[in-house]
Design brief:
single chain; 61 residues; alpha+beta; Multidrug-efflux Transporter Regulator, Chain: A, Domain 2; 3 helices; DNA-binding transcription factor activity; MerR-type_HTH_dom; MerR_fam
């Protein structure tokens, strides 16, 4: 997505901090297709705020 700046989204570190899981765990969930990340033009991953709820759901299983 050209020109995407991540406004209103969470970087992986922010998501990890907010959910008390590691960045590696988030990477794993993303690779499994459990989480979706958007990439910025500088290749940063950004996650929707709904990812917080999704991680909590995954962690409670």
């Amino acid at each position: 997505m050209e020109g995407f700046d991540g406004a209103g989204k969470l970087k992986i570190g922010e998501l990890a901090e907010g959910t008390k899981v590691t960045k590696r765990t988030i990477d794993y969930y993303t690779k499994l297709g459990l989480l979706n990340a958007e990439r910025s033009s500088s290749n940063y991953r950004f996650y929707d705020h709904s990812s917080i709820k999704r991680i909590k759901c995954i962690e409670n299983r």
